[in-house]
Design goal:
mainly beta; 8-stranded parallel beta sheet; about 325 residues; elongated
């Protein structure tokens, strides 16, 4: 090593020239304040005070080799710190089925729903605390303008003690002027083994509606017999979006949204889902067959105030209702 340094000193030696002391500049960091979303009632805001680093007193004496080598080390240190803090500042995008907003319409045909949008990006300093707490654990699938194959939600615990209107929603949009209504259009929908405070089906068209083995704290089954519903057939899965099954998970809410354009699926199965604190609201569904079975629905208000409602705005061609029982039930 000594011989190498001696050789480099002779090679890079320039007569009559000697480097003087090399002085680093003083550095002052800016003051920072970081605001984070509320966690419960706690706001983990962070204040970073300004910091002055006086490294101007440091001097390096010597020839070109020593000064150059020190500069390289300092530059490498700065680059390393920049990369570290850049990576540290990145938040990994949520992956299905983590709580988040997922848009099936942006997924390429014959591909799977994978990456979602974190609810945090939709929140700001003015967002009420109750909205923050509500959205952060919500799983929402936007099917507007998308064609999906089979969708399965099974073995889920959902709900929240307060602040929820619906724990499970299927929503579309009413017709407005010359704009047609928007709906979820499926060949078959099966709701099996549900437990919830209420269930309401409205603004829908069902070709065959099956209701069997439902225990409810009041039943009101009053759909409108109409020739409007069609026997929806969705069988080809070529070019469809794949939605991986969601099983054995917990959320505060689950939302399937087709409010900006019709969404399509071959088969939607929602089974063994227990909800508390709120009910199930099903709107704007067009289905060849809808089956609701083996479920317990009740909010404890008594059988004279129905907890299970098939609204008159639901049009059907055929109804099969068997072994359904009214009894005082309160799902907690």
């Amino acid at each position: 090593m000594k011989k190498l340094l001696s050789f480099l000193t002779k090679v890079f030696f320039i007569p009559q020239i000697r480097f003087g002391g090399f002085r680093f500049p003083s550095v002052k960091t800016p003051e920072g304040r970081l605001k984070f979303p509320l966690i419960g009632e706690y706001s983990p805001n962070l204040h970073i005070p300004s910091l002055r680093v006086n490294i101007g007193a440091l001097k390096i004496h010597g020839g070109i080799l020593r000064v150059g080598f020190t500069g390289v080390l300092f530059g490498a240190l700065v680059i390393t710190l920049a990369i570290f803090f850049s990576i540290r500042g990145l938040n990994a995008a949520p992956i299905w089925p983590e709580p988040a907003l997922y848009n099936a319409s942006i997924v390429q045909p014959d591909s799977s729903v994978q990456v979602g949008q974190d609810w945090a990006q939709f929140l700001n300093a003015e967002t009420p605390a109750e909205v923050r707490a509500l959205q952060t654990m919500t799983l929402q699938l936007n099917l507007s303008g998308a064609r999906a194959a089979d969708i399965t939600l099974s073995g889920l615990d959902i709900g929240k003690a307060s602040g929820l209107t619906d724990a499970l929603q299927i929503i579309g949009a009413n017709a407005a002027g010359s704009t047609a209504a928007k709906s979820l259009i499926c060949d078959e929908i099966i709701l099996d083994g549900l437990e919830a405070k209420t269930l309401n089906l409205a603004n829908s068209e069902i070709y065959i509606l099956n209701i069997t083995n439902v225990i409810a704290d009041g039943l009101s089954i009053g759909p409108t017999l109409s020739s409007d519903p069609k026997d929806i057939v969705v069988q080809s899965i070529r070019g469809t979006v794949s939605v991986p099954a969601v099983t054995n998970s917990t959320y505060d809410r689950i939302i399937i949204n087709s409010s900006t354009a019709d969404g399509f699926c071959r088969k939607l199965t929602i089974s063994n889902v227990s909800a508390y604190g709120a009910g199930i609201n099903l709107d704007h569904i067009h289905a060849g067959t809808l089956t609701i079975q083996n479920s317990i629905i009740g909010d404890g208000t008594g059988i004279d105030a129905a907890s299970f409602v098939i609204d008159a705005t639901t049009k059907i061609q055929q109804l099969n209702a068997t072994n359904n029982i009214e009894r005082p039930v309160s799902v907690q």
